[in-house]
């Protein structure tokens, strides 16, 4: 059994961690690191009796993740202090949002950049306020910069000189040129307060964004983490609100993300054991390509299945922009590389 | 991967995989007398690999990978596979280890107390530690010293010492040739030859010691000793630590305690003999 298969079995609770062989642990620890999920696994197995060296390593990971989460929330606070005087309202997205809202997927979750959503009308003011508060441009390349501004769903990334942390300022959740065009105004309007005064997306939007991020934006590299997010979000929201799945359907339709949300739910069910209501419990033969892609890693932590990776890479660009534009973009990028 | 081995250095269990047999055989020779725990899962993974299948044979070049990688790191020729393995192991510790505050520093110990020597490469910290480790000292490591945040104790990381350039001749004359690795000439870091630590250093590698003296050596110039304030020692050690920021408050606590409780000195020395004499003098004072 491959280490990736064991890893998802551990997350799904289908396998007893106490019964793993030493060489199986090698692989599991390696692939969990590669998927940036070792600390998440450490939380999942916090109550399980594992060999002592593993228990020590997992305890290290939990402690380190706690520090990292605190640092990520501090970065959100820094953004608020920069934007509040300008009366710019923003909504936290992804990892920082999960942590601010105290959601179960936040336990041990690695948080990279700070992602925020602002109204498109506030974009220029947000940029100025952040620049004034010490953030700087990362991309020096004029083509990349122009590309971001013209076609992307976020500003070119900014980095804070003193703290060395990046912020991604989104005005919607998928690139402007994407085939799918979710409704960011509805997301902003229905955002909900989190503790400490931050705003986060409402439960259905959070699940929609998570599914869109996993399946519509990118090549599924490191997608297992996003799938785990979806599993935790949907499972927790469904416990808190028995009508959640029905509302999610309606909201996904509104954003044009029905197929992404449905597929995310099926993949989470298949790999992580998410309980789906009747009506969601269908099977789609194309899902198996996604299963394979999500598990495409060997026991040494290396990406495997090169052709499948390439196929998903091409798919991600295909979704992201119309063909003529894609051709122009690749042409420019190719010229610049030479 | 085709070839592999397992190595435990201090608290870190590595698994090293390789597309070639040679670097693994070289590692196995250097680490033959280190304790082996077949049942212990690996904390860290190192991979030595060919970027393209044919580069396994055709002008073979070794890329360094693992749990953590440095983007754009240049590969090394297969003849330097041992150096690639060493760099891969260092990288995993530097970027992945969270149990202790990591100091890029060498250390030696005596009677349960340690001298920690921090400096850039070329400062002579490895050479001083290696020479002291051949005398009346226990070598703790030439690359990393680990500080436990809770207790403030120092833990050893006694990997095979990486002797460079002149240090090779200096040590080669003093030790059993069986304790030396192959000469790696003309690497990006100069000539390199590994020294297997003495058996006592390996046997006691899990024993914690109390830091007693902090030194910031500089090779070259007149012999000099300059006492260093807590503030400067603190700032220098934050720069010498690869996980200070990641540890957050625990790292801050460990480092402030270290610089407040342990006397620190910058030392300059023209040659190894005077360097060692300086260390012994300062030790005699600190140990009083």
TrEMBL record, chain A:
Pfam families: NTP_transf_5. Keywords: Transferase. It comes from the Bacteria. The keyword Transferase applies. One of its GO terms (molecular function) is transferase activity. This is Uncharacterized nucleotidyltransferase. The lineage of its organism: Bacteria, Pseudomonadati, Pseudomonadota, Alphaproteobacteria, Sphingomonadales.
Automatic annotation (TrEMBL), chain B:
Keywords: Kinase, Transferase. This is Hpr(Ser) kinase/phosphatase. SUPFAM superfamilies: PEP carboxykinase-like. It comes from the Bacteria. GO terms for molecular function: kinase activity. Gene3D superfamilies: P-loop containing nucleotide triphosphate hydrolases. InterPro entries: HprK-rel_A, P-loop_NTPase.
